[in-house]
Amino acid sequence: MPPRGAHDLKCYRTPMSRHRSRALAHPLLRARTAALLVLCAATLARSVVAAAPAVGDTMPFRILYGRPTFVTEAGIACYLWSEGGRLHVRLVPSDSRRRVRGELRTSRAGSFRDVTPTSEDLVVKQAKPSKLEFETHTAGKEEGLDVTLAGDFNQLTLDLTIDDARTPDAVRIGARRERPRALPVRLDVKGADPSWIQRFGLYLNRGGTPPSPRGATPSGAPLPALASLGARRRLACTIWCRCERGA
Predict the structure, then answer these.
(1) Quick one: how far is CA 25 from the chain centroid?
(2) I want to staple 77 with a disulfide (CB 3.0 to 4.6 A). Which of 58, 92, 167, 192 is the partner?
């Protein structure tokens, strides 16, 4: 039987009132949980879209090889090439001060290692092994970075903005200074010409061994057995590069 004091009457809750309060709390809790889930999903979707814009152009990976000749141009030029087992990025500035932001991405199985900026003015961020961001304000001098692309990668993607605007005309890739039609540009190993893949042992099937006689180096020696797909790709790229130089 409930107490008759005024104070006790205010604090006293019958079993029926407790049951009614719990019944009202459950729908509110479910509604709050659902709202939080929707908010988290929307935030995640926005972050994914912002982090991975649609690819504007796809080019073969092999065009990367060879240091390009830098030429004087009216605007900023971004040179990207591969030489000596490393990727190289150089920003050749114009007379005016500009804000340049760039990003290198590769497949999840790949990674960027041993990042070496060429100046202290270039800020480099690496949120995860397969993504590398760089930013600078050009001040009349050449800037850039050197980095090793490692792991079982199958593509390399470059994105570049100058004063917050994508500028594909500023990009020069490889010794021939190839220009993408749009950004981001993906350099795809699978997009290479099939005859080039077969000639230099760049076999993309993970398990098999290269068939003879295609599975041989240009000198006629068979390709060594390599444990990983990345090792086979790196050897094939090295062989191709030597043949391009006439070695």
Answers:
(1) 46
(2) 92
